[in-house]
Amino acid sequence: MERPEYAAPGVTYGMPRFVVLLRGVNVGKGNRVPMADFRRILTTLGYTDVATLLASGNAVFSASGRSATTHARAIAAALTAQLDVSVPTIVLRATELTAIVTGNPIVPPAADHSRFLVAFAQEADALGTLAPLATLATAPERLVIGEHAAYLHCARGILESPVAAAMLGRAGRAVTTRNWATVLKLEALASTAA
Questions:
Q1: How many whole angstroms from its chain centre is CA 16?
Q2: What span, in angstroms and rounded, lies between the C-alpha atoms of 27 and 82?
Q3: pLDDT value for 13
Q4: How far apart are CA 156 and CA 140, in angstroms?
Q5: What is the dihedral sign for C-alpha 164, 96, 35, 194?
Q6: pLDDT by residue (tens digit) across 79-125?
Q7: Which of 5, 13, 57, 88 is most buried, most CB within 10 Å of its CB?
Q8: What are the tens digits of pLDDT across the range 156-172?
Q9: Cβ–Cβ under 8 Å, residues 19 and 92
């Protein structure tokens, strides 16, 4: 398993853990969010035990009080104010991420972890906007929209999937996706302080 870019030296026990996912950062020239700046912003907001994973806008932190939606709004506002980056920002409790992992209806084989996408949304209603994409899926590709996440197995590969193309484009602008390997790493990182 890859090590996080930054591992918090201590753990604040008793405080809820959260996961933050940014959509569309560090892809191409736009929406640049250096992970060092991302960690600094999260720390400035008062979050503790901050750790980032990879360079695609994934982090975990501890915080007391406030809802995940409130944290998402605060983080999005800080990114805009401090880095002039405005992107969909999704925050969920670490326990919610664990429920999404354990509730996966399509457990992919290890060889397919990079071809299996999980779509996350701040509001559950946003997942419903993905329902029309099911008509684009042809076997062996599968799209399952759950209560807290959508699961897409791109059996032929992400680049060959019309569902993935739509989800990663305009049709999925209210969600962000991570492949299964990244989701499992995030869950492990978030649980280190559980």
A1: 17
A2: 19
A3: 53
A4: 8
A5: negative
A6: 999 999 988 899 999 999 999 999 999 988 999 999 999 999 998 88
A7: 57
A8: 999 999 999 988 887 78
A9: yes
Instruction: Find how far residue 131's CA is from the centre of its chain.
Output: 19
Structure tokens of 129?
A: 């906007």
CATH number of 17-97+187-191: 3.30.70.1280
Number of DSSP helices (H) and strands (E) in the chain, helices first: 6, 8
Identify whether the C-beta of residue 40 lies closer than 8 Å to the C-beta of residue 83: no
pTM of the model: 0.87
Smallest CA-to-CA distance from 126 within 168, 175, 61 is with: 175
Query: How many residues are present in the chain?
Result: 194
**Is beta strand 58-62 parallel, antiparallel or unpaired with respect to 17-22?**
antiparallel
